[in-house]
Amino acid sequence: MAHARTHRGETTCGVCNKRYGNRGNLKQHMALHEGRTTCHRCQKVFAHARALKDHMALHDGATQCLKCHHVASTAANLKLHAKIVHRAKR
């Protein structure tokens, strides 16, 4: 996992040269290169296990909020989410 600090304090990925403001963000990014969380159905790679879990729910028929990408198991739950979180206008 090669990386280098630039003069501005950014951390750069040694694989794809993307720049990150701190080492924590680089560490999360490196998971993409390491392939630790991969969807077995479509081979999409995720940096976080939670993101993979939400993605898998979409394969199983869940619905996703277009505003914040929250995943809900049913359309009714998505509507409730929008009402509470986004204060959906009627």
TrEMBL record:
Source species, domain of life: Eukaryota
GO MF entries: DNA-binding transcription factor activity, RNA polymerase II-specific; RNA polymerase II cis-regulatory region sequence-specific DNA binding; zinc ion binding
Record's keyword terms, sorted: Metal-binding, Nucleus, Repeat, Zinc, Zinc-finger
A Pfam match: zf-C2H2
Residue ranges occupied by any C2H2-type domain in the UniProt entry: 11-38, 37-64
UniProt record similarity statement: Belongs to the snail C2H2-type zinc-finger protein family.
UniProt protein name: C2H2-type domain-containing protein
Species lineage: Eukaryota, Metazoa, Ecdysozoa, Arthropoda, Hexapoda
